Structures are given as C-alpha cells and as structure tokens.
Amino acid sequence: MDWPTYDDRPIAGSLLHSIHLHLAELETLLRQVTFNYDDGVYRFYHGSAKVFFLQFDTEKMIERFCTLFIVPLNKDLLTIVEDGTGFKWRLGVQFTLDDTRRVVEAFLHAKYFLEMLVMSGKGIIGPLPPATMPAHWASVLYLYNLR
After folding, report:
1. Which of 53, 66, 102, 107 gives 84 a disulfide partner, CB atoms 3.0 to 4.6 angstroms apart?
2. Is residue 53 part of a domain?
3. Domain ranges, residue 84
4. What CA–CA distance (Å, rounded) separates 13 from 126?
5. 6 lies in a domain?
6. Domain count, the chain
7. Mean pLDDT of 28-49
8. Helix (H) and strand (E) counts for the chain?
C-alpha cells in the first residue's frame, strides 16, 4: 500500500490557499504583535496595568483567524481567549496575578497560532498540504478543527 504524499481533502487545500493568499497580511500582523510582546510580558512582571493592552492584540489575532477561514476555531483556544480578554482597567481597581496571567496566556496562545500560520504559508509550497505534516501545519489544522 502506498502512503499518500498530500492531504487531498478539499478543505485542507482551501485553508492552505487562503493562508498563501493572505500571507503578507499575516506577516504584518505578526510583526505588529511581536512589537508589543516584549513590553506586554515585561508589564506583567512589573505589575503594571498596561499588561491589559495585550488584550487588543489577542482580539485582533482571533478576529483575523476567523476571517481567514470561516470555520469554528478550536474550543480550547476560545476558552483561553475568553478567560484572558474582556478586562476593563479602572483607576483604583486591583487585579490579581491570576487576572494578568490569563491576559498574557491568551496573547501567547494566539501569537503561537499566528506564528504557525505564517510558518505554514512560507514553508508549504504548492496547492496541497503534505500528508506527513510538519508541526506548524498540524497546529494550524488544530486551530481550525481539521485534525
């Protein structure tokens, strides 16, 4: 029996096509959130409320994932993001370590998937994804519940 060389599922090919089509936009978004990454994590350890600004990048990434390919996103990721967004900073309100940790955690998970999308877009050449998949592509498939 010969093992398939490519994942010939139409949905996998469509996802890869969308990534290739929007790769420049994904790379731009990755540069933007990476710019804020150092400061955001520093703010967590500094105990600064400015850590909450990471929520905006997290929401931008999730929104981009949703518009890139219109299928439901991974429910575990959505739970992490829901737990780590929606905080409103108000003068005099003390947030806990758990609150700020969840903000950073949500950001890092979203950034990870954005990095995997970019790696897949750059690393998989051609219209069909490989059947023996690199970890970045396997992660993208998990993002979109296709694995």
Report:
1. 102
2. yes
3. 22-143
4. 10
5. no
6. 1
7. 93
8. 6, 0
